[in-house]
Amino acid sequence: MILDSGQPQSLEAILEGRQWREDAQRSLMDEFPESTVVAIKLNTPGAIKTNAALRAIFRAGLAEFADRAQDEGFCDERWHVYISRATGPEAFVVYKDDWRWVKAVAVRFEDASAMGRLFDIDVMRHGQVGQLSRTDLGMPQRRCLVCSRPAKECARSQTHSAQELKEAVERRYLDYCGTAARRLRCAAKLSGDRAGRASVDGANPAPTEEFGHV
Ligand SMILES: [Zn+2]
């Protein structure tokens, strides 16, 4: 299964990754104080956070989210894409648009697309404490990957085994990106549409990061 292949990450590495993400977010919010900052990553169970299949999922989902944003007419000011992080692929995008609107589109992507269920999209802006939540917008709570109950309830009570969660991720992967043709189309869409519009800020990312290998 896809979540059995790869290098398990220590808790320390995952916590360092969280700090890195927070620094990147803060840096973008400082640079674009009037804009909405979006942090995009995978939401996968277990200690393995990246491998070829997960990177393919990320590229494909990112392309779909970007298409949805474009359909909404969002104005993107900055993209940072990190495909090769050991703790999982991540991306940050800055939109000029209202953060509530951006969050609503992100929630619809997470809920409506089979691929979206494997993503975590956080939406924030300068001067606001924390991230905008689904509850803030009166939108439904996130559903569990395995069953249809709210994800938080299943996580809290550990309703599902690690194996069940892995199998659920596998199903999503096969549902959405299971055919080579679809994967190729997803990857081509992302490299064609997004790479050209992305840019790197010298102060962010960190020098060890790959950028734009899509
Ligand atoms: Zn569940």
Task: Explain what the structure shows.
The protein is an alpha+beta fold and 214 residues long. It has one domain. It is built from six helices and four strands, in the order αβαββαβααα. The protein has helices at 11-31, 52-72, 99-112, 151-157, 162-177, 180-193; strands spanning 36-42, 76-82, 90-95, 119-125. It has a four-stranded antiparallel sheet, sandwiched between helices. A hairpin with a 7-residue loop joins β2 and β3 (90-95). α2 packs across α3 (99-112) and α2 packs across α6. The model is unreliable at 193-214 (pLDDT under 50). This is citrate lyase holo-[acyl-carrier protein] synthase. It is an enzyme of class 2 (transferase). Residues 195-214 are annotated as: Disordered.
